[in-house]
């Protein structure tokens, strides 16, 4: 689940729009730039493709901790394109998932993909700005929130709403990334060693300004919202021979970083980033043969009292 910066221009739908099983299309008062939303959708899907094993490890960990009976009614909070929705459906056979997101486009992608996979009848998408109104989609056995809680204006309120959706004893699974994934060796042969580390540091700096909840003490927040933290795990991803989609994933991550950083990088770094992203020589990202994937994410499984 790659992260993205919150767009302050975005308008929020005040009322949830529901799409039942098998519907496609959709609308909403959503003003994020279409190309930007499409790029974000690609990024989220590439993240799930490259980190498929990691996603599977996380859902296996949840299944192991959840025990019997396995969750059947699941709510995905801030589902995006539904990478978590689909992973949970694969893990929990027969489960039905309600995906909540404020983005018409991302939910549309989810319905399309679910249709292709023949699981559309097990998925319901509900468009809602969770900073405003939480739709009444409970009771749920499991609420999943991956890389979404830190986007909320008031995560404590979001946790209270999530608790209200859960049946007593129901589970809340939260995954948060530690920082952006890294793909490049320190020396990329273009004369600017350490470029990716500087991009990441600048992104961390920007995120701290734009998303003050990122990297907070989530376990303390869960406890304050009345949950009991049952398990916590740090997942480290270290792929020396990553799958073929990695080049496109790296390109998507670094493009988004470049768009968001502008003057936080100096002109020489920006020029090298341009060569990586736009060049067509052997050093260009999409042609490189030296990419790896390094990232880590933290997961918590908590029980509603
Ligand atoms: C980084 S993406 C993660 C998507 C998905 N959970 C994943 O792991 O691939 C964050 C998602 O949260 C959604 N989101 C952020 N703030 C929201 C809000 N206030 N209401 C509803 N959805 C929100 C965004 O639209 C986006 O799809």
From TrEMBL:
CDD domains: AdoMet_MTases (cd02440). Residues 74-170 form the Methyltransferase domain. GO terms for biological process: antibiotic biosynthetic process; methylation. Residues 1-32 are annotated as: Disordered. Gene3D superfamilies: Vaccinia Virus protein VP39 (3.40.50.150). Residues 1-21 have a biased composition (Basic and acidic residues). Pfam families: Methyltransf_25. It comes from the Bacteria. GO terms for molecular function: methyltransferase activity. SUPFAM superfamilies: S-adenosyl-L-methionine-dependent methyltransferases. Keywords: Methyltransferase, Transferase. The keyword Transferase applies. This is Methyltransferase domain-containing protein. It comes from Actinacidiphila yanglinensis.
